[in-house]
Amino acid sequence: MKRLVIIILFFGTLNSYGQQGIILGNDSLVQVTFQNNTQEQVVDMAEAISQKYNRVVLHLGRKYPFGRGGFFQSSQSQENLKAFCMALNRREVEVHLWYMDSYGKDGFKALYEDHEGITNNLVEELMRLEVPYQGLVLDMEWINRSGGNNNKKYLEILAYVKKKAKGKQVHAFASIIDVPDHNKKRGYDEAKISKVIDGIWPMLYPADGGFHKKMGNIQPWVRDIRIDSMRTYFDSRSYQVVISAEPVLLKKRLFGVTHLASPTQSASLFSHLKKKRVKKYKYYTITKYKAVSDFSVANRKGEKKQVKSKQKLFYFQIKPELVQANDLIWEYTYLH
User: Fold this and answer.
1) What angle do CA 50, 59, 34 make, to 5 degrees?
2) Contact, 105 vs 145, CB < 8 A?
């Protein structure tokens, strides 16, 4: 009989630290906020954000944010975008607008073939609408995965965006680690990138590295010593680091770990759990639970997954110590 182990990842409070940047990257949040809300509601949201954060990264969309089917196609969403950015700037909060995101070599190829048109349209629309902002952000992850060779093409895109940005800052999210040669193989020649744009934003997402069993316990592959090594490397290059606050519910079977539930449901699970023990580490704690009743959760595809009473559970919680003053936090919906 296969054993079932569940891991929950949820980010702790960050209020004990100085201001960081926050990323608004959830598609549903962006659509509801800018397409359905009034300008007053959008401004109120901006005011609330300005009380906690000194930078905002707003996801506009993957290709043409103002085109057909884009998040900001309607006049209402465009007016709300302008009001939101103006309200943040009045509070001296920087606004960085994120567009063009892809994963893997095929996703990168699709953007590369149309990158000039995408950037031209974005810059022109922002100018037409008179949206105030401080920078543009790109998110092209693992661009060489599965045999890609896109280093030069990636630099072409960055150089074009920097040219069209006309004095605005340009940054890039990057899936890099603390080994420069390995990063080059992934598609990110840090030295060359740093000469083209204003900065690399490395993504430090411990949960994305996966989990494994060790002597009856659960451990992330990206443990404290690994986090320290990457943080030291990133700090040595003055990178602003992106820390994931995403709560993730995982199911661990005899072979491997799979995603079990959507993040927004994690808080309601504790009524079904009984705490057994807590192990504290530098950047996270792991709490062992046992299910006291049957319940179900939905995965990212909306599929219901059943959990049986008496099954072993582990709660993996990132500690606030992982976040430093100048970090960017992924993502707004996980903390508010």
Assistant:
1) 70
2) yes
Q: Residues of 203-222 as b/e, b for ≥16 C-beta within 10 angstroms?
A: bbbbbeeebeeeeeebbbeb
CB atoms within 10 A of CB 75: 9
Average pLDDT, the chain: 88
Distance, CA of 199 to CA of 176 (rounded, Å):
13
Q: Which residues pair with 218 in a beta bridge?
A: 213
What burial letters (b/e) apply to 173-184, b meaning 16+ CB within 10 Å? bbbbbbeeeebb
The pLDDT score that the predictor gives to residue 155 is 98
CA-based radius of gyration for the chain: 21
Share of the chain above pLDDT 70, in %: 88
- Residue 191 to residues 142, 186, 200, 201, 317, Cα–Cα distance (Å): 18, 14, 10, 14, 34
Q: Name the residue among 237, 296, 245 with its Cα closest to residue 12.
A: 245
What pLDDT digit, counting tens, does each position of 148-157 carry? 899 999 999 9
Among residues 158, 171, 247, the alpha carbon closest in space to that of 202 is found at 171
**pTM (two decimals):** 0.89
pLDDT digits (tens, 9 = 90+) for 77-100: 999 999 999 999 999 999 999 999
Task: Indicate the length of the chain as a whole number.
Answer: 336
Helix, strand, coil percentages, rounded to 5, for the chain? 35, 30, 30
Contact at 8 Å (CB) between 241 and 324?
yes
Which pLDDT does position 30 carry in this prediction? 95
